[in-house]
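Students often ask why we bother encoding 3D structure as a string. The short answer is that it lets us treat folding as translation between two languages. Here is a chain of 298 residues written in the first language.
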Amino acid sequence: RAVERLRAITERMVDEVLDRAAADGGFELIDDLAFPIPFRVISEMLDMPTDRSDELRDWSQILTATLEPTATLADLDAAEAAIGELIPFLDGVITDRRRNPGEDVVSALLAAEAEGDRLDMAELMAFVVLLYVAGHETTVNLIGNGVLALLHHPDQLAAWRDDPALDSVAVDELLRYDGPVQQTVRAPLRTVSYRDAEGEPVEVHHGEVVITCLGAANRDPEMFPEPDRLILGRPNANRHLAFSSGAHYCLGASLARMEAEISITRLIRRFPDLRLVGEPRWRDRLTIRGVDRLQLAF
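And here it is in the second language, the structure alphabet:
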């Protein structure tokens, strides 16, 4: 219900961005739409102030850099400094919400009880940080990567633009084709045995840390025929692992789908002659993979 309540708010936010873009004859997708929309939506959901959006974007970028396999000690130091600035900001919000509870998620977390015990401050802070950072960071890349994929497949862009029946399924194919999270880390609870691509046996033992490549799984030809093609009507596109699976399935999956669907459908139907200007610029990341700059004209 919370996601559906935000649908009308998201539509209004996206239309405001596209109205300004229409007056200018184009816009830069990431800074003008892909970042501000998810950020404003998660801020609305948590009832967070938005006056420090630039700082919060910087903090998010610094924190997610530590998820990279190439992270350095300097990255970890920077993340610790960012947390040192983020925590006091959130502490002020949470303290205010204790005194003045509302209808937002933070107020609900403060009121919730699990087996009679409330979340302690450290647990609550960790959960809010997760919701706040993950609630917009990956959706930025979903929108950016998705629009770029459509521009590289004009037949699929035209098909979606002209067929509203694709609205409910197209985002899953975008997630499969070039998801915002390309890899993650797991530690098995029991020994797992399988064979690699050459048929050689492999064992992963209990407690060993492994990197699982979600992007590679989403291009598995045994699961997805013609995996390197974008096919928006792909019958089993929803079998992708872009949101992970099982106990670790993405908490915000329905919110991300809704934001991407509204942003992309309104963009491609408002501007049927949408085109790319210059070359896209990519972030220097392997795990949280996304376009950093995408200039569009119409």
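Translate back mentally: The first strand starts at residue 26 and ends at 28. Keep this in mind for the problem set.
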